[in-house]
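Action item from last week, closing it out:
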Amino acid sequence: MRYFRLAAVVFLLAGQSPALAQSSTDLVRANPRAQYALLKDVNARTPYRLPGRPDPRQEYDIALCGDEAALTADELTGRLAYLARQVDKASFMLQWADYPRSIWQPLLADYERTALDAAVNGLSSDNDGTSRIKELLTQRLEAQRRTSGNRLPHVKWLGCAGGGVELKIKTIPSGGDVWVILEFWHDLCGKQQLDADDRNQCNHGMDFADGDETELLGSYRYVVTWSNGRQRKGRQEFDDNWKNPTWTIRYSGP
C-alpha cells in the first residue's frame, strides 16, 4: 500500500494519471524532483557489502565505480539515478568508516542539492558546482583523520572504472528476442505504477538477438519472446562468480 501512495503522489504532482503515462522517462521529465525521491527509495533497497571493520591503513573511495551506476539511455534519468546512488554510497561508507556525521552530512546534503538543481535545470554535469563541495568535504575528512591520530581510514572521492561479465546470449529454441533490464529500473517502474515487463513503458532496457555478445554486471530481469508468441520471463545475476561464456535461456513452458 505504501508504494501505491507514493506513486499516486508522483502522478498528481506531475499532472498525469497512470493511464496517460507513456513511459518511465516521460514521468521523470514531467517532474524530476518527485521522481528523484522514488529513485532514492529504490536505491535504498540495494545494500552495500563491505568487509568487517575499516582498516585505518587503507584508502577508501566513496565515489561510484562505473559498474555501480544504473545506466540508461535517457540523460536526465541517468543523472538522477547516479546522484541517488552516489549520495547513498557516500553516506553509507562514511558512517561505516566512523567519521562523525557532523563533519560530512551538511556538505553531502549540499552536494546533493546542488547536483539535483543542476540536473533539473539542464546544466552540464562537468560544470554543476559540485567539484568545490567534494574538495571541501575530502579536506575536512582528512583534517578529522589527523585529529584522530590517524585512527580513521583515509577517504578519497575519485571514482573508478568498471566492466561487466563478457558473455554470448543463446536462446533455446533459437531465434528468441531478448529484452534485458537492470533490476534497479525494473523496481523503479513498479513504483511508477507502470508495467515493468513492458519495454515501451519501462524504457530503460536493452534489446538483444539470439547470438549477440555483450557485457552485463548486476541483477537483471529479462523477457524472451519467440516468433510463435511464446515468452519466458526471469531474473539473472551476473557477478565475479559467473564463469560461463554463454548465457543460455530455454523456453520452459508447454
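Closing note: The two ends are 35 Å apart (CA to CA).
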